[in-house]
Design a protein that fits this description.
heterodimer, A: 243 residues, mainly alpha, 3 domains, 32% helix, elongated, B: 264 residues, alpha+beta, four-stranded mixed beta sheet, 8 helices, globular, disordered N terminus
Amino acid sequence: MPQQLKRLLVLFAVLTGGIAVARHFLLPETFGERGHYRAAAVTAVEKQPIRYAGREACAMCHPEVVAAHSKARHETVACEVCHGPAAAHTESPTENPLAAPRKRGYCPLCHGYDPSRPTGFPQIDPVTHNPLKPCITCHQPHQPEPPHVPEECSACHGEIARTKAVSRHALLACTQCHKTPVQHKVTPRQVRPDKPRTREFCGGCHAQDARGPQEIPRVDMETHGVRYFCWQCHYPHQPEGGG
Amino acid sequence: MEEQECRASECAQKVSEGRREFLHTCSLAAPLLLLGLRAAAVEAWATTDAPYNPREHSYGMGVDVSKCIGCGRCVEACKNENDVPREPFYFRTWVERYVIATSRETVVDSPDGGIAGFPTKPSEKGLLRTFFVPKLCNQCANPPCVQVCPVGATFATEDGVVLVDQEYCIGCRYCVQACPYGARFLDPRTHTADKCTFCYHRVVRGLLPACVEVCPTGARVFGEVQQRSSPLARFTRFNKILTLKPYLNTKPKVYYANLDEEVR
């Protein structure tokens, strides 16, 4: 074997040995066991204590409440949303009692009116909705009841009702012009009331030959704004009408 | 099966008088025996304590923007569960509010991360649309934060969660800069980088992440990305899914349904 090759081999051996030794001392323990990182770092994260026990844990000691809650409209709301983290409570219930929010300020976190919330989510205006009363005096948070089916149109269409109330159409019932299916009160968006669709509908009261009191203003349906529908110029909930 | 065994042994006895009595005893004993077996099986299953195998999992989260009511319970739960500093600007998850005016001018805010809800309401005058968007670490499959870490202190686990090695992090903030989603922060107590871990300590124990656990409307869904029978798989199958900043090729694993084009 030539001399220079021997020297090269020695040099190579020293270098490889040096790297191996350096690697042994420099490389952190457990590095590379699972990937290009310390496996111990994952174990450290795994060991972090748990604060939220999960809703299944509550049923073991509070079966009645959980059973009632799981059938009600708040079923998707986990116990710990309102009662706070309960892992410590599950270990020693008496030493770590859980609180329940009883003040008025808590429920509006979800149910206070906010235009950014999805349409249809049950909301109230905390300023006008039974001011100063804690929510739980009327609503049972484990089994909240949906609001009553409205009896008057004004319950939902307050703005229109208030406008109409001071107009010349004040004495007309909403149903005079809007055929309202009963189901509209339950699912207002799916089942909608209808609206007048023809000039003749208004003409039923306002045409020259219409039956009814003389005080009702009359127009000649043949000549009066023929190319338009009545409501394109007159707002039926507050008709301007000659005073 | 129990009854058949009983019959066989009974035939061997050939005592017609004792037959009825014997069968009666058997019918009483069978359920007891079954109960005992079942109890033993359940106990065995509970005590086997099969070690968690990260290779069998691959986690992701779904967020339905149209279900978020901006109550901030997820932010509160995250801070409780993970001991995140209470003062503002330190969040592992937070809720943003988008207010888009008819002029198409978009205002995004997140007062204290939305931890106490959104006390001020947007004016409804000139409002085109408005909604809440929960945000968190996207647990990218191609994470920029891992690429830039000079000491290899942040990494993706085999189950697809990006974690931080608190002992090796030198607090240089490169990863905070690199994250296109603003999901990382420097913990003011330890001076190391911190971020959402998908509540890794809960997930390996078979629990849901704290934010998913407390979301009152089910706007957050957690599960396996690869398995077809997982809540997340169902979520991604039945919704049109978008991810945040897909053009950056980070391959996020937080999937948004009903996301508005204005969300960045």
